[in-house]
Write a structure and sequence with these properties.
single chain, alpha/beta, five-stranded parallel β-sheet, four-stranded parallel β-sheet, 11 helices, globular, disordered N terminus, binds flavin-adenine dinucleotide
């Protein structure tokens, strides 16, 4: 690894370049950071390592998708009030403005001993520090019926924004009026606690306009609504009475795609016209395969000061893949904050500086209960040196008093701001 003085020379030379052409990709002799995954966590970390090292650290981001497609706001595409174009942002500015080298590929293996990642398309990338931010994988194998031919094309999750988002919308459009849409929710923790309840609202909003005899069934493995419960229940009672039905304590055991039937561990079978099944989730495959998922083989434990993995040195894990601290949601907002905290720590570690001993960050999670009206929950999280974890700051944060269009405007500003912070 580069010595500190040598780094500062490289960094300031690159910094001078940076003033006129910070787009110059850092492929010189400076320290090398490789980032796996250009989502909310990885793209933010890539950009901020470049910025906060004054463009002295070279950053390569590996991502298979040609553009960033946001899960936040994707429920509105399913509800029909937004389009895929509204939630898609190109990666160009990471390269043009920040000099991040973006490699369109998938990482197939990490050699932690040699500090190298292997690409599915061939080739290797050496690193001094590796940032692993592959999001989640859906544990579809826990539902045997999903392995039957055609089942995965028919029973969608749409929990990674992209082709399934469009496909689920099409299923709703072709459903008869008077049909039933059923969404199943796994036991927490899962990606975006309020996301399934927001989706139920979006589907119901569409039904009120286009298929008023239809029904939305929420089949939740949890004992109760896991986020903003009172606000969602009020929206269901006030706006979607008789249309949305909520059933807690429903653990899906299997699915039958041929008859569109859900089978539960304890409850009666349920048939629906459109099945939207969210299986259990775990850290993205590359993290699990590398042995980073130390908590139940599902989530990756990290040091919250640096996001360094507890299982492997020089490897940092961010975003939805981590074993969260108490009351820390798996959200895009949080993943963006992980990205910045980790970027600051990685720059400090590679330049011989002190790592911040008390990171503080916040989370705001907006949910659309119609096409315009929104509710939110917010929290502030601070590092606790005794417990070595992040704890919520007492009295911080809060929830909306009621749904409003004003919050709807804030929610869209939040989305535009976080897309800019992550990618522009
Ligand atoms: C319907 C829905 C609504 C949501 N609404 C909100 C909201 O309103 N607010 C909010 O804050 N959060 C929301 N979320 C949650 C948010 O989307 C996630 O928490 C966030 O995307 C997590 O960021 P991440 O970087 O960990 O993962 P992702 O954003 O999923 O990024 C992971 C990236 O890694 C890439 N990748 C995976 N494996 C590899 C590999 N081997 N090699 C290279 N690249 C790889 C993937 O292609 C992907 O681009 C919502 C989620 C859903 C599903």
């Amino acid at each position: 690894m580069l010595k500190r003085r040598q780094f500062i020379q490289t960094a300031s030379a690159a910094g001078v370049l940076g003033l006129s052409a910070c787009a110059t990709t850092g492929s010189g002799s400076g320290p090398k950071v490789v980032v796996i995954g250009g989502g909310y966590a990885g793209a933010t970390a890539a950009k901020y390592v470049r910025m906060w090292s004054d463009y002295g650290i070279s950053v390569t981001l590996v991502e298979p998708n040609s553009a960033f497609v946001s899960c936040p706001i994707s429920n509105l595409v399913i509800g029909g009030s937004k389009t895929m174009a509204d939630i898609t942002t190109p990666y160009d500015n990471l390269t043009k403005r920040h000099g991040v080298r973006v490699v369109r590929d998938t990482v197939s293996r990490i050699d932690a001993e040699k500090k190298v990642v292997m690409l599915a398309g061939g080739g290797e990338l050496p690193y001094d520090r590796l940032i692993v931010s592959p999001g989640i994988d859906l544990m579809t194998h826990t539902l045997p019926g999903m392995a039957k031919p055609g089942a995965a094309d028919k029973i969608l999750h749409a929990w990674k924004a992209g082709p399934q988002t469009v496909a689920l919308r099409r299923q709703l459009e072709s459903m008869r009026d008077g049909g039933v849409y059923a969404i199943t929710i796994p036991l927490a923790p899962y990606r975006c606690p309020p996301g399934p309840y927001e989706r139920a609202c979006q589907v119901a909003h569409y039904f009120t306009q286009a298929k008023p005899k239809s029904k939305v069934l929420i089949l939740d493995e949890n004992d109760d609504v896991t986020s903003k419960g009172a606000l969602f229940k009020k929206a269901w009672a006030d706006r979607y009475k008789g249309m949305i039905e909520y059933r807690p304590k429903h653990k899906v055991a299997d699915v039958d795609a041929a008859t569109n039937t859900l089978k539960f561990e304890f409850n009666d079978d349920v048939k629906a016209d459109v099945l939207n099944v969210l299986p259990m989730m775990r850290a993205g495959g590359i993290a699990v395969q590398t042995g980073l998922a130390t908590a139940n083989q599902r989530w990756c434990e990290v040091d919250f000061l640096t996001f360094e993995s507890k299982a492997a040195k020089n490897i940092h894990v961010l975003g939805d893949s981590i074993q969260v601290a108490p009351l820390m949601p798996k959200s895009g907002h949080m993943a963006n904050q992980h990205g910045k905290t980790c970027a600051a720590a990685v720059v400090a570690l590679l330049t011989g500086k002190e790592v911040n001993a008390m990171p503080i960050y916040n989370n705001t999670c907006y949910s659309f209960v119609s096409d315009k009206e929104v509710v939110h929950v917010a929290s502030v999280h601070r590092y606790d040196a005794d417990k070595k974890t992040m704890l919520t700051v007492p009295g911080s944060g809060g929830v909306s008093a009621a749904a409003s269009e004003l919050e709807g405007a804030y929610a869209m500003s939040w989305a535009r701001n976080i897309w800019a912070d992550t990618l522009a």
